[in-house]
Amino acid sequence: MTQAAVSSPKTTPGGKLELSTILSRDFTASIVVFLVAMPLCMGIAVASGVPAERGLLTGIIGGIIVGSLAGSPLQVSGPAAGLAVIVFEIVSKHGLSMLGPILLLAGLVQLVAGALKLGQWFRAISPAVVHGMLAGIGVLIVAGQVHVLFADKPKAHGLENLAAIPAALGGVSFSSLGAVEAALMVGLVTIGSIVAWEKFHPAKLKLVPGALLGVLAGALVAAGFGLDVQKIAVPESIAAAIAVPGAGDFAKLVDPMLMLTALAVAFIASAETLLSAAAVDRMHDGPRTKYNKELFAQGVGNMLCGAVGGLPMTGVIVRSSANVQAGAVSRLSTILHGAWILAFVALLPWLLRQVPSAALAGVLVVTGWKLVSLDHVRHLFARYGLLPAMIWAATFVAVVATDLLTGVLVGMALTLLELIPNLRKMRLRIAQRTLGEHESEIRLEGAATFVQLPKIAKVLDAAPNGGLVHLDTRALTCLDHTCAEALGDWLKSKARAGVKVEMPSPCAFGDRLRAAVAH
User: Which segment of 135-139, 395-399, 421-425 scores lowest on mean pLDDT?
Assistant: First the structure.
C-alpha cells in the first residue's frame, strides 16, 4: 500500500484545520467516494444474491450513521466484496428474510466487543490468513460473476461455478447475437473500459473511478445497439427497499448453525474493518484509528442494516483509499458520500434501472481479480519463509473448496504452529521510559508473537509523535511475521510523521524489520 500524495491542509496558528479547508476538501472527496461507491454497492449486492437496492441501503447507513460514529476518521464503510460469498450462502440456504436477523445478531456481537475493548485483538490475526481469505473470496467472486456475463445465474457453490465455466464458454455463438452474446458484449466492454482507464488515464483525472466509467460504457453499448440484456431492478422509492424482519425470523435464531453464522459474519466483518483501518492509517498523517470505537460504530451500523434488510458492512479499503487520495481531512467526507447516495436513489431511481446486470458483473470480475493478488504471498515467502506462505495457501484453498468460515479457521489453526518453537519461552516484557524532553525508549524482551500483539500495539500507539524514539529489540528471542508486519507499519508511520526511530546495533531481527518497512 502506498501513501497517498495529498497536499498538506491549511491550519490555524494553533495547529487546527481551518473550517474552510475542511469543507472544501471534504466536499470534493465526498463526491469522488460517492462515484466510487455507487457501482460497488449495487454490484456487491447482486453478487450476494440480493436486490441491488439492499447494497445502497448499506452504503447510506455506512456513510451517514457509521461515518458520524467512526473511530477511524477517514475510513469509509459500506457493503464489502469480502462478505459477498457468505451472504450468498446465507440467502441460498436460509432465504433472504433470515439475513436481517443474522445481521442484527452479528452487529450486537460487534457492539459488545467494542464496548469490552476487544478491538486490538483483531489486529493479532495473521496477515497471511487475511490475504489468503481475500484471495479465495476473489476467485469465488470471479467464478460466480462470469456466469452473469453469460446471461446465467451463479451456482450455489464456488467449485460448481468453476466447473461450469467451460460449458458456459461452449455455449457462446459467434454467428448470432442472442441474449448470451449481448450480455457478454456488455460485460467485456465494461471490463475493458475499467482496465484501460486504470492503465492509461491522464494524471489530472486519476480520481475519476474506473468502475463508474465501465458501467457507463456498458450501459451506453447496451442502449446504443439496442441489446436485449437484463437490467437491475430498483424500486420507485428508497422506502420501498426497506424490509424489516418479522418475529418468526427472529425465532429461527435458536438454530445453533444460524448463531454460528452470525458469529462468523461478526468476526470476518470486524477483522476486515480493523485491518482496513490500519491500512488507511498508513496512508495519511492525521489522527489515528481508535479501534474499539470503530468496532462499536460498525456494530451499530450492522444492527441498523439488519433492521432495514440491508447487506452487512465493513470498512472498505477501495473507498477509503479513494477518500484519502481525494484529500479528505475529516469524517465529514464519509457522511456526505452517504447523503449523496441517499439523494441519488431518492431522486433518480429511473437512471439506476438503465444499468445492465452484466455491467455490474464486469465491475465485480475486476474487483475480484484484484483480490487474487500473489504479491503478498511472494512477500511472505521471501521475507519470512515457507510457513507463512503455507498458511496463506491453506486459507486460500480452504475458502475456495469449502466455505469462508472454514477457510479462516484453517488458517488461524495453522498460525498456532508458529508458537510451537517458543512454547517454553512465550513471555514478553515491554519496558517504556522517557529519556528526556524529546527522547524516549521502548524495549522488547522475549518472544514477540501474534499472541502478544495487542500488548505491543498498545505501547507503540502510546509512543510520542515527536522527537527521538529508541526501539531496542536486542533481547528479543522470537519475532513472528504478524508482529514484524505490525512493527514495520509502525516504523513507517513514525517516519511519515517526522519522528526519528533508532534501533541499537546489533539489532535483533533487524533485517526482518527493515524488510517489513520496505514492503
Answer: 421-425
Q: What is the pTM of this model?
A: 0.84
Closest CA to 6 of 70, 67, 64, 74: 74
Three-state DSSP class for residue 442: strand
Q: pLDDT tens digit string along 243-259?
A: 999 888 899 999 999 99
Half-sphere exposure of residue 377: CA atoms within 13 angstroms, side-chain side: 21
**Which cell numbers in the block locate residue 282?**
498508513
Encode burial over 212-249: b for 16+ CB neighbours within 10 A, e otherwise: bbbbebbbebbeeeebebeebebbeebeebebebeeeb
Which grid coordinates belong to 517?
518497512
Query: How distant, in Å, are the alpha carbons of 175, 192, 270, 281, 340 from that of 324?
Result: 48, 26, 21, 10, 18
Can you tell me whether residue 38 is helix, strand or coil? helix
Cell numbers that stand for 250 in this block: 427472529
Please compute Rg for the chain using Cα positions. 23
- Taking only the tens place, the pLDDT of each residue in 37-67 is 999 999 999 989 999 999 999 999 999 999 9
Residue 369: CB atoms within 10 A of its CB come to 15
pLDDT digits (tens, 9 = 90+) for 406-462: 898 999 999 988 888 767 777 899 988 888 888 999 999 999 988 899 899 889 888
Among candidates 379, 388, 371, 381, which has minimal Cα distance to 482? 388
Is the CB of residue 318 less than 8 Å from the CB of residue 210? no
HSE-CB for 253 with a 13 A CA cutoff: 20
Q: What H or E segment, with its residue span, contains residue 428?
A: strand 428-436
User: CA geometry: angle at 302 spanning 401 and 452, to 5°?
Assistant: 70
| Residue 398: how many other CB atoms lie within 10 Å | 22
CA distance 278 to 301: 20
The three-class DSSP label of residue 312 is: coil
**Would the pLDDT of 17 be above 80?**
no
373 CA to centre of own chain:
14
Burial class (CB in 10 A: 0-12, 13-18, 19+), 117: middle
